[in-house]
């Protein structure tokens, strides 16, 4: 999705003031604020935009009504690029270790970047159904991104699994492509903004199936159907579908976070202070990966961006302390 890609040597010479890991709304906002504060910053991320880029439509970002998530992500990126910040795209961070007073990150490709501070804005990982057939058919009918893969099911029959905002917006997006969309939710009511719920009810192509769970994905070379169970009656039936879009939430990358030595909350999110600092001096976390007792969980683009700005301000003040002449 990004128009740009910076290729750096395997080991970047010199030490940055800050490495921002992740280029979603939190990471890019943090980078923007740091750049404006004249902080030497670099971004390393597997993609641009994070989950924002996969949103079919963003209707609640002030001043920019009804914009595709990918477009909004592009606008974030272009704003940051104005400040000449290097952004390494297509490379994930494998480890974060401290060497004396310097933090060094190593990526999956073997690239190494060191800095005085690190902002982790790595987001979360999409949850899987963990049912028979799911792993077998990933890329052959199973998808976790309607915007990425929806076009492959033009005039087909698809199912969306989930009951939150992302599930409903995905179903609405897919209804413009597919001829039929099943929306399967385990509860008797959706947990989404009323605006989306009302649009679902008015869409003739979308059929909500409540109090139901997916128990198996079936097919031969590709998905041909799903077996669902009613959680009230216990009755099972098979729906013929060409594709299944899983939108049942996400979770933090707990093992990676533990490997750094970060304190996590009881759900596995990074425990942060009000200024986004962590138990490790020089490490900050913001956006969806951040948690702890001070965090009010409201996973929105605007709240992630706000946390990125807070983290940047905290890093700037931290650098002033440790880099005193």
From TrEMBL:
Residue ranges of the TM segments: none
Coiled-coil regions, chain positions: none
Gene3D superfamilies per the UniProt record, alphabetical: FAD/NAD(P)-binding domain
A Pfam entry, by short name: Pyr_redox_2
InterPro entries membership: FAD/NAD-bd_sf, FAD/NAD-binding_dom, Ferredoxin-NADP_redctase_2, Pyr_nucl-diS_OxRdtase_2_AS
An example molecular function term from Gene Ontology annotations: oxidoreductase activity, acting on a sulfur group of donors, NAD(P) as acceptor
Residue ranges constituting the FAD/NAD(P)-binding domain according to the UniProt record: 16-308
Keyword Oxidoreductase: yes
Keywords in alphabetical order: Disulfide bond, FAD, Flavoprotein, Oxidoreductase, Redox-active center
UniProt-listed PANTHER family: THIOREDOXIN REDUCTASE 1-RELATED-RELATED (PTHR48105)
Protein name stated in the entry: FAD-binding protein
UniProt source species: Ignisphaera aggregans
């Amino acid at each position: 999705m990004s128009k740009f890609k910076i290729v750096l040597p395997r080991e970047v010479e010199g030490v940055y003031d800050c490495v921002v890991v992740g280029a979603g709304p939190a990471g890019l906002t943090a980078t923007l604020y740091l750049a404006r504060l004249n902080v030497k910053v670099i971004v390393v991320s597997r993609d641009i935009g994070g989950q924002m880029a996969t949103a079919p439509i963003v209707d609640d970002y002030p001043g920019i009504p009804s914009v595709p998530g990918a477009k909004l992500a592009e606008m974030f990126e272009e704003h940051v690029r104005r400040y000449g910040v290097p952004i390494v795209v297509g490379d994930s961070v494998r480890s974060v270790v401290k060497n004396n007073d310097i933090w060094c990150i190593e990526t999956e490709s073997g690239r190494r970047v060191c800095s005085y501070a690190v902002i982790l804005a790595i987001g979360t990982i999409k949850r899987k159904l963990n049912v028979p057939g799911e792993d077998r058919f990933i890329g052959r009918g199973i998808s976790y991104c309607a915007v990425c893969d929806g076009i492959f099911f033009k005039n087909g029959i698809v199912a969306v699994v989930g009951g939150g905002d992302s599930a409903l917006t995905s179903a609405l997006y897919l209804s413009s492509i597919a001829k039929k969309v099943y929306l399967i939710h385990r509860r008797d009511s959706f947990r989404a903004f009323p605006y989306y719920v009302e649009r679902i009810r008015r869409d003739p192509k979308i059929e909500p199936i409540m109090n139901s769970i997916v128990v198996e994905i079936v097919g031969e070379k590709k998905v041909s159907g799903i077996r669902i169970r009613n959680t009230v009656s216990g009755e099972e039936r098979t729906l013929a579908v060409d594709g299944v879009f899983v939108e049942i939430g996400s979770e933090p990358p707990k093992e990676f976070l533990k490997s750094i030595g970060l304190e996590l909350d009881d759900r596995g999110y990074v425990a942060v202070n009000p200024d986004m600092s962590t138990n490790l001096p020089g490490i900050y976390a913001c956006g969806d990966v951040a948690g702890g007792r001070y965090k009010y969980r409201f996973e929105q683009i605007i709240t992630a961006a706000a946390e990125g700005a807070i983290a940047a301000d905290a890093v700037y003040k931290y650098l002033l302390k440790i880099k005193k002449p």
